[in-house]
Specification:
globular, 9 helices, four-stranded antiparallel β-sheet, two-stranded antiparallel ribbon, about 190 residues
């Protein structure tokens, strides 16, 4: 099923697994990692379309080659949960006491997408100004999301975004764990 899913789209294999996972390469190499706590977030769509194939083509080939080496090293880390630095990173990122600013998170598409679509870069900055920590481009875009420490903060940030960008789609959402995901699929 994973092979068929990969032919439908690079992100589709993830949805067969559900839960918390790390996707490498084009997103077809999926590694389940232990779940982290549920998280409130704001997702916003700036009403522009980013062509994923074009975004990939704009990435620096040397950077991608180096990232490929890093990804191979990361994949080897997932073999032992007790020493899994990926899990530690994810758990630390979404832990309320972590105090991360978002500079620890990277989306390689941001420089190329933001250069072509400055309104998406402005949207990320606005999310962070309003209190989302961190905020990131989702995949190759054009949606941007920001993590929030509570539903109340997420709703406040969403109101601020809707006031500033009334033409954009803005949603307050919460991540779900694997057990919730499976339960919803059965409904």
């Amino acid at each position: 099923m994973l092979e068929i899913a990969a032919k439908l789209g690079a992100d589709v294999p993830f949805f067969l697994l559900g839960g918390t996972a790390l996707g490498l390469g084009r997103g077809t190499e999926i590694y389940a990692i232990p779940e982290v706590r549920r998280q409130w977030m704001v997702v916003t769509h700036p009403c522009v379309h980013v062509n994923t194939a074009r975004a990939y083509a704009m990435l620096d080939p040397d950077m991608l080659e180096e990232k490929g080496k890093e990804n191979a090293q990361r994949a080897a880390l997932t073999e032992s949960v007790e020493q899994d630095r990926i899990y530690s990173f994810c758990a630390g990122l979404l832990a309320p006491q972590a105090g991360l600013t978002g500079s620890e998170l990277v989306n390689d598409f941001e420089p190329v997408v933001f250069a072509t679509y400055p309104q998406i870069a402005r949207l990320k900055k606005q999310l962070m100004r309003l209190g989302a920590t961190p905020a990131l481009l989702s995949g190759s875009g054009s949606a941007v999301y920001g993590l929030c420490d509570s539903r109340q903060r997420a709703e406040k940030i969403a109101r601020g975004l809707r006031a500033r960008f009334p033409e954009y789609g803005v949603w307050v959402v919460r991540t779900v764990g694997a057990s919730e995901s499976l339960r919803m699929q059965g409904e």
